[in-house]
Structure formats: structure tokens, C-alpha cells
Design brief:
single chain; Transferase Creatine Kinase, Chain A, domain 1; Creatine Kinase, Chain A, domain 2; 8-stranded antiparallel sheet; 13 helices; binds adenosine-5'-diphosphate; binds citrulline
């Protein structure tokens, strides 16, 4: 697209967003002022990527009900369009009053032994999962990855997994080698991502699909790496029980092995970089699949407790899905401004509090 075409699309997108009188709550809408639009419309990140504001904001221009409405197209987007990204990041992560230059401190896994099994009697928790996102230094994020780069990223990850050890030993399957039925079955078991999130579709996440996408996992399906879904890598540890400590330990060890052969994109202010501003910092989401039948009868109280405990409730199939058969996905809401340990501990404390509240109703 020529600069003129970009300009035209940006102006039309902005007009459609700001003309909407019903959906007014996205952070893109809140922070993209006419002055910033004017300033950024024809600016790009460096060659060869040359990402425009439009490449970052197209999803929010189209989906006015977005929470955020913007993705970074590459590392530089966070700085080149910084006057837009920064207040969005601060507000989403509750860092409005943080005046420090550094919003995310160095990685700190803390004392893994303090993280425990949250439901040893297996009464409430069906499974536990922690995922972190990583993007390989030197490559743009999904909105601007070329077809060749999708394949290069996949090759780099595949090579890095070859030295995995112990319970992390597994194999890599490229998505093109999985028939539709097997994919569906794996999605249902929560070990494979699926294509289709409309916010990501518009942002360009599924270009060249299934090229360069795939999944690495051990035979027990407790350590997985999703390749070229929303981020270059989603590193995942899971267990079919409430043993958060076990899941955490396996995640940390797996990541540290990968760090021996891959260098990940980091930002001096935001920490680990992800394509979506909501995942910056630790990029860590620790979740349980949990049934709380009695608390679940009072959704307002549950929502208020979750809010108070800084937890997010998602549906059984993940973000933007419904709760089926009472199985909720409850995770830490915050990702930035806290250490990895603090976030996992906050999920632990929050789930313990919810289980206690459930038991009081029994
Ligand atoms: P992400 O966690 O990567 O932000 P999603 O919310 O879409 O993205 O979740 C990805 C997948 O992980 C979905 O299939 C979801 O059901 C599954 N999942 C999340 N938490 C758990 C859990 N505690 N146990 C089992 N599966 C889970
Ligand atoms: C949005 O802005 O709503 C989508 N791009 C998804 C953002 C990430 N999820 C979230 O805030 N819950």
C-alpha cells in the first residue's frame, strides 16, 4: 500500500471508530486524539518492516467493542507510536500513577517452593496452566511477519527444542501435518490454539495460515510451545489437577532451557515484549479450570470477588468463549508491574480465597 492509501485507510478507520455512539470504551478510542492521528498517520517504523499506525490500529478501527484495540506490529512500534501506546499500557495494567522510567523490573521467578497444590483433594480444580509469551529478537510481530519469516521463526523454535531435557523432551508438529479432525480434538483438550479470533483476524494474525504454525509438546502433554499463534512462542505448562507448584516449576525450567539458544525481545521500559499490549511485562497468565457451583449461582458476587482479587474470568475454551458446564477459567489479570512470582502467588492466594468462599456456602 502506498502512503496515500495508508493515510486514506487510517482516516476512514478513525472516522468510523469515533462516529460510533454506542461502542465508545476502547482504549484506542480514548487515547488516539486527532492531534496524535495527524502526527502519526504517515510515520513508520524502520525498514524493512515499515509499520504504519494503521498496521497497529486496524483491529480497533474495525472492532469498536475492543477492550484495547491496538497491537504492536514490531518492537519499534512501542516507541515510534509511544504517545499512543504508553497511556494505553499504563491504564490497562493499572500503572497510571507509576512515574518510574521502568514499568517492568527484571525477571524474578522467586521461590518456586512457595507455590503449592491448590486443591489436593481434587474437588474444584480440573486443570492448571501457566503460559508466557516470547518473541524472538530481530523479527517483527505477527501483523508484519512475512511468509518467509513465519517459516524462519518456526525453524528457529524447532532447532531450539532439540536440546530439551527430561520431562521437557517432546516433538514438534507443524500445523499443516495435522488434519482438521485431529486439530479440533486437540483444541477441545486445550493443547492447541485455534484460528478465528476476530480481533486477531483483522490485525493480520492468520495470514499465510497454516504456514509456520505448529506445536511442540512432551508425551504427557504437560509442556507445550505454540509457534506463531499470536506471539512467536507461547510457552505453556499444564497439569490435569490443581498443582500450581508443579506447573510453575516445569515452566521455569523449560524457559531457561530455551533461553540458552534463543534471544527474546525485551524493552527497557515494558520488559518482555508481546504483540498485544495486554501481555507485556511478565507475559504470564496462570489459570485454573475450576467449578465453584455455589458461588457460581451469584455471578455478581463472583465478579466482585474476582475484581477485588485482580483475577479475570474467561470461558471454558479461553478468551472470548462461553462458560460450559460450570467450568470457568480464572487467571491473574495483571501482567505488568509485578514480578512473575508475585503474579503466580496472587493467583494462588485468589483461588484459595474463592475456594474458601465456596466452602462457606456448602
Ligand atoms: P491464552 O491463555 O494464550 O491467553 P486463551 O484464553 O485462548 O489464550 O486460552 C488458550 C487455551 O488454553 C484454551 O483452549 C483454554 O481453554 C486453555 N486453558 C486456559 N487455562 C486452562 C487451564 N487451567 N486448564 C486447561 N486449559 C486451559
Ligand atoms: C481487544 O482489544 O479487545 C482485543 N484486541 C483483545 C485484547 C486482549 N484481551 C483482553 O483485554 N481481555
Amino acid at each position: 500500500k502506498s502512503p496515500e492509501e495508508y493515510q486514506e485507510l487510517t482516516m476512514a478507520g478513525y472516522k468510523s471508530l469515533t462516529d460510533d455512539e454506542e461502542n465508545v470504551s476502547s482504549l484506542l478510542r480514548k487515547y488516539l486524539t486527532p492531534e496524535l492521528l495527524e502526527e502519526y498517520m504517515l510515520v513508520t517504523t524502520s525498514a524493512p518492516v515499515e509499520a504504519y499506525l494503521y498496521d497497529c490500529a486496524v483491529s480497533g478501527f474495525e472492532h469498536h467493542d475492543s477492550t484495547v484495540g491496538i497491537y504492536a506490529a514490531d518492537v519499534e512500534s512501542y516507541d515510534v507510536f509511544g504517545k499512543l501506546f504508553d497511556p494505553i499500557i499504563k491504564e490497562y495494567h493499572g500503572q497510571e500513577d507509576n512515574d518510574s522510567d521502568v514499568l517492568q523490573k527484571d525477571t524474578d521467578w522467586g521461590n518456586v517452593d512457595e507455590i503449592e497444590n491448590l486443591d489436593a483433594e481434587r474437588k474444584y480444580i480440573l486443570s492448571t496452566r501457566i503460559r508466557i509469551a516470547r518473541n524472538i529478537e530481530g523479527y517483527p510481530f505477527f501483523p508484519k511477519l512475512t511468509e518467509k519469516q513465519f517459516i524462519e521463526v518456526e525453524d528457529r523454535v524447532r532447532a531450539a527444542t532439540e536440546t530439551m531435557d527430561g520431562e521437557h523432551i517432546g516433538s514438534y508438529i507443524t500445523l499443516a501435518d495435522l488434519d482438521a479432525e485431529t486439530q479440533q480434538e486437540m483444541v477441545k483438550r486445550h493443547i492447541l490454539f485455534q484460528r478465528g479470533d476476530e480481533y486477531l483476524t483483522t490485525a493480520g494474525c492468520y495470514r499465510f495460515w497454516p504456514t509456520g504454525r505448529g506445536v511442540y509438546h512432551n508425551p504427557a502433554e504437560t509442556f507445550l510451545i505454540w509457534v506463531n499463534e499470536e506471539d512467536h512462542m507461547r510457552i505453556i505448562s499444564m497439569a490435569q489437577c490443581g498443582d500450581l507448584g508443579d506447573v510453575y516449576n516445569r515452566l521455569v525450567n523449560g524457559l531457561q532451557e530455551l533461553e540458552k539458544s534463543l534471544t527474546f525481545a525485551r524493552h527497557p521500559r515494558y520488559g518482555n515484549l508481546s504483540a498485544c499490549p495486554t501481555n507485556l511485562g511478565t507475559t504470564l497468565r496462570a489459570s485454573v479450570h475450576i467449578r465453584l457451583p455455589l458461588l457460581g449461582k451469584d455471578p455478581d458476587r463472583l465478579a466482585a470477588m474476582a475484581e477485588e482479587l485482580q483475577l479475570q474470568i474467561r470461558g471454558t475454551g479461553g478468551e472470548h468463549t462461553a462458560i460450559e458446564d460450570g467450568v470457568m477459567d480464572i487467571s491473574n489479570k495483571r501482567r505488568l508491574g509485578f514480578t512473575e512470582f508475585e503474579l503466580v502467588k496472587s493467583l494462588q492466594d485468589g483461588i484459595v480465597a474463592l475456594i474458601n468462599a465456596e466452602e462457606e456456602l456448602e
